[in-house]
Amino acid sequence: MTNRTTAPVIKDAVDFELELKPYTKFTLDNGVDVYAINAGEEDVIQVELVFYAGNWYEEQNIVAAATNHLLKNGTNTKSAFEINEHFEYYGAYLNRHCYNETATVSLHSLTKHLKELLPVIRELVTGSIFPETELDIFRQNMKQKLEINLKKPDFIANRLIDEYLYGIDHPYGKYSSVAAYNALQSAQLQSFYKDYYINGRCIIFVAGKLPADIEKQVNDSLGGLTVNKHNLPVITHPVKAATEKKYRVNNDDKGLQGAIRIASHFPNRHHPDFTKAQVVNTLFGGYFGSRLMSNIREDKGYTYGIHSYIQNHMQECAWMISTEAGRDVCEATVAEVYKEMEMLRNEPASEEELLLVKNYLIGTILGDLDGPFHIIGRWKNIILNELGNDHFYKAINDIKSITVKEVQELANTYLQPEKFYELVVI
Amino acid sequence: MIHFEQFVLDNGLRVVVHEDHSTPMAVVNIMYDVGARDENPEKTGFAHLFEHLMFGGSVNIPVYDEPLQLAGGENNAYTTNDLTNYYCQLPAENIETAFWLESDRMLSLAFGEKSLEVQRKVVSEEFKEHYLNKPYGDVWHKMRELAFEKHPYRWMTIGAALSHIENATLTDVKDFFFKHYRPVNAILVVAGHVTVPQVKQLAEKWFGDIPPGEKYVRDIPQEPVQTIHHQLEVKANVPIDALYKCWHIYPRLDKRYYITDLITDILGGGASSRLFQVLVKEKQLFSNIECYHFGTTDAGLLTIEGKLVKGVSMTAAEAAIEEELNKIKQSTITEKELQKVKNKTESLIAFEDMSLTNRANSLAYYTLLGNTGLINEELGKYQAVTPEDIRNEANIIFTDSNSSTMYYYGDGQ
């Protein structure tokens, strides 16, 4: 008979040696750095151009996002339809994303089609024209989408909590509005495009099963971009956090649930506490077995899910707790979150619980390291945040070495209720 | 080409092994042949509620998640109208932990009253979060009832009503478990840094002594051929009017499935697709429009849905959709346009296959469909579709009597 009451022997994940496959780097004729990971079994490739063209640099709200979004809606020689058709004919995906500091243009395709696609990417980042008709359609459709989103308590809560933390004028705190869409002009987009794409600063990341002539292919298409000739303007945006900490917003009298956000400022990735605080966060609310999930979902059934995380910003960050809970149990949920903070401050976690969290974290990182896109994603984070090439190993070491005493100390430093903003949107 | 080997244990458990030694990880995937379509119409939402209970402890192991996380693993599960799937990924050296956990919950659950009581609440909150407290959240609830008269695709996996979940009893739970969660009704896929002999030994050791159970024979009402157009008008507290149309299509194993899949891509598969280009960009009647299907095992629905630009009437919007459908019915598409959607399918398959979890999941599903080897035959079936196939099928599918339409009016606020 198989003994089912005793768990099989395991190797603790903390005893695994993790390796982040090193990148190779080459430089294009125009001085643009390209970081590359050649790995994987499938004949697929990802090419990502990162421009310093986030909303940090815009002078008017949503200009950066609109510029990024409309990059592929018309060039000197191609209509929006022709551009879309070209990428889709080759089964490729061309995505754009606008963040706070950076904005990206990324391509996913089968490796064999890369040659047909890179020249059109070049055209998008050199010759986009932002036609008025395209902007009109974008404006109209985005306003309708916004109207729908404003019916969702979680959408409203996400906007308001950032406003409280950073201020409505800060790149991390501001958000879209009908007025901002109405104010968009094609000329502003063209001007932003000229300053932050054509004459901007760019870094390129490629990953996947790379063709042997990858350097030549990228250089032929993108080595002539006029980027990286000028330094970025130095722009500072002071954080203007709200003075009031507690908010209750009623958006729907008949709402069945409340969106709860509880958040406090937190240092960025360069702070020595950052990785160890990630471990504390995991234990607190960062995985399915976390304290918050075990108590508020698995014991009380107040919510379908509750999570905590440290925001992904480059400069200022926040430690955030986020959930949607039944209307009648919102206040009870908020109280339980503070109770869990208090327990972490007052009582050391058990060695067993901390080992479990470490094993879980190391195991998931291990599982995350076998695909080329995941690997380049980790390097991108390290490179854009200027964390240094040994960052990965330092972080792994921090995870493996943190003690229950340190967990408690970090909880006492950061998980103090009076530091937290608190919001419920129904 | 995805390599695999398969064998069957004496108790009927089907096992598929996919070796991939480029990763240090292993995935253990168990698919049970039960979904929302197998539910009693008076007790809908049960297959999904039951999925939650599978994490509430088994006969010898009080908590499922902790030992897995301690072994460096993570897991998840999902329920569809057709099936229920559980999967975990962990370092391959700790794979026995996954066998121990999965086999114990196939042996028997703990059937705790507390677990049922809590998960009823959790699922009720899930219901509210995704379907009730969300603009347009009730659309599929209404569309399924409109399109299906008999087939249990009439209800969503979350359930037809909150009360069905709130009324679930422990007796229901036990009956459901011993009817559906038996080795003869399950498929085990192990993928990653493992070997076939190792998996054979572990499967025998942990699953071999579980009683086989009775093979579940599916006997659910089939949908009669629709003969008259179904129409519904709804007024809801949303800001923008929306239009939904759907048509009955074919079962997953029907060869015409591949034709209809490509039709959805031609019409609504991207920014150069026909509906988006003509109705959103050129005519500006919709602020967004999509065409898709759910890929269900039994015959499902092809759907076109869109949000209307303010000021556009429902009849004008619908007429414009009909005009596009007439084009695909009347003129044969070019080889180039067909090649575009085939190329898209080829790269979609390549991207999906990058993930070990996806490969394990697909192997389980094709095994459930009766032929694991289908995993390597799909692309060829798409490649074989001709422009004439597209036109012929469009003429068969897009008829008034085969369709259901919902006008979903907002209150303008």
Could you describe the 3D structure shown?
The complex is a heterodimer of chains A (426) and B (413). Chain A is α+β, with helices and mostly antiparallel strands. Chain A has helices at 63-69, 80-89, 114-126, 132-149, 153-166, 178-183, 186-198, 214-222, 274-286, 291-299, 330-346, 351-367, 372-384, 391-401, 404-414, and strands spanning 24-27, 33-38, 44-51, 93-98, 103-110, 202-208, 246-249, 257-266, 303-310, 317-326, 421-425. Chain A has two domains: 24-222, 2-Layer Sandwich (Cytochrome Bc1 Complex, Chain A, domain 1); 246-425, Metalloenzyme, LuxS/M16 peptidase-like (Cytochrome Bc1 Complex, Chain A, domain 1). In chain A, the strands form two sheets. In chain A, strands 1-2-6-3-5-4 form a six-stranded mixed beta sheet, with helices on both faces. In chain A, a hairpin with a 6-residue loop joins strand 9 and strand 10 (317-326). In chain A, helix 1 (63-69) crosses helix 7 (186-198), helix 3 packs parallel to helix 8 and helix 10 (291-299) packs antiparallel against helix 11 (330-346). The radius of gyration of chain A is 24 Å and the shape is globular. Chain B folds into two domains: 5-207, Metalloenzyme, LuxS/M16 peptidase-like (Cytochrome Bc1 Complex, Chain A, domain 1), CATH 3.30.830.10; 230-410, 2-Layer Sandwich (Cytochrome Bc1 Complex, Chain A, domain 1), CATH 3.30.830.10. In chain B, helix 3 (95-107) packs parallel to helix 8 and helix 10 runs antiparallel to helix 11 (314-330). Chain B has 15 helices and eleven strands. Chain B starts with a strand and ends with a strand. At the A-B interface, helix 2, strand 5, helix 4, helix 10 and strand 10 of A face helix 2, strand 5, helix 3, helix 4 and helix 10 of B.
**Main pleated sheet of chain A:** 6 strands, mixed
Tally the helices of chain A: what do you get? 15
Indicate the CATH class of the largest domain in chain B: Alpha Beta
Oligomer: heterodimer
Give the strand order of the largest sheet of chain A, numbering strands 1, 2, ... along the chain: 1-2-6-3-5-4
* Stretches with pLDDT under 50, minimum 5 residues of chain A: none
Mean pLDDT of chain A: 95
Between the first and last Cα atoms of chain B, what is the distance in angstroms?
A: 53 Å
Sheet/helix structural class of chain A: alpha+beta
Number of strands of chain A: 11
Q: How many structurally independent domains of chain B?
A: 2
